[in-house]
Amino acid sequence: MKSISTKFILIFLLGVFFLNSPVLSASTSPSVLVCGGSMMNGNHFSDSTLKAMRDGYHGCKVIALVLHASLPSDCDRMEKRLQEAFMHLAGIKAISLHHYDDAGQLALLKSVDGVFVGGGETFVLLAQLYRTGQLDLIRKRVLAGMPYGGASAGANVAGYLIGTTNDFPVAEIPSRNALGVFPAIINPHHPLPGTKADYDARAGKIKIYLKFNPKQTILALSNASIARLHDGHITLDAGYGWVYTLSAVRVLKVGDEIPELLINH
Length: 265
Prior knowledge:
Layout: H1 4-20, E1 32-35, E2 40-41, E3 44-45, H2 50-56, E4 62-66, H3 75-90, E5 93-96, H4 102-111, E6 115-117, H5 122-132, H6 134-143, E7 148-151, H7 153-156, E8 185-187, H8 196-212, E9 218-221, E10 226-230, E11 233-238, E12 241-244, E13 249-252, H9 260-263
Parallel strand pairs: 1-7, 4-5, 4-6, 6-7, 8-9
Antiparallel strand pairs: 1-10, 2-3, 9-12, 10-11, 12-13
C-alpha cells in the first residue's frame, strides 16, 4: 500500500500540472477515465472494462452523452447502445446532448452528475466543444469532481492537447488545446505487439512526433483499455498501455501506476 505521504506528493504534482497547463485552473479532484476505444460488446460494455467503468461512475444517477464526434445520422443509434450499456453497468440513466439546442445542451451539462464523450472524429468533436462553450463548462465541472469518461476521440480531448489522434483534420479547430483534465496526450487504438507491422508503424509515428515535441508525454492505449485518474493517482485499470517519452517507452500492465504523467507533462 502506498504511504500517505506518497499519495499527497502525487496530488501535489497533479496540482502543479493543472497550474502550468495553458488551459486549466488548479485542481486535485478530477475522476477521469480514458479508453483506447472499441469498449463495447454489443449493447454492453465489454467484460474487461466493467469494473473500471463502475468505479469511475460510482454514485452517478444521470449522465450526459456527448456524441459530437459521431455522424449526426448515427447519434440515435449510439445513444440507444450507450443507454443500455450504462443501465446495465449500474442503473445509470444516460441522455445525449444531440436532442437539444445549444442552450439546452449547456443546461443539461450543468444538471447531470457525470459525462461520457464518445468516439468518432476528434477534430469535429473539439470544434463543436469550442463552438458551443461546452469545453469550458465540462472542464470546470470535471475539475470540481464530476466523473468524466471518454473513448477514442473522447479520450483524445480529455488530454491537454490533441496531437496523436490517428484522425484526419476534417474540421477546423481554434486550437489544439483540449479539456486538459487528464495530464497526457492520448494515442487511442494502439496496436498490440502481436500485430507487428501495425505495432511498429504506430510506435514509429509516435517516436517521430516526440522528436518534434520532446517535452510531451504520450499515453497510448489499445482497444478496450482504460487508464484512470482518481484521488491523485493514475493507473491502468484495463487492457494494455504504453507511456512514450523522447527517451523511453514503458509497457504498462493492469494495475500499474503511471506517476510519470504527473511529472513529465
